[in-house]
Amino acid sequence: MATNLALDDNLLNQAMKIGRGRTKRETVTIALKEFIERRRQKRILDLQGKIGFREDWDHKKDRRERESAR
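The chain above was modelled as a monomer; its predicted structure follows.
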């Protein structure tokens, strides 16, 4: 898909140096992938302290029971 963007040349040049992108397209692609990855990580971190775990859960016992049920 062809897209024309007006990008800040200074930012793009810095990104190319830091990210060692060979082309503008490669640099923007890397930047978008990293942006998506960081946002997904942030969503996971936002769950910290919000998920309750059972103190009495025995993961080894649970695994043995599931394996013996096969």
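The radius of gyration is 22 Å.
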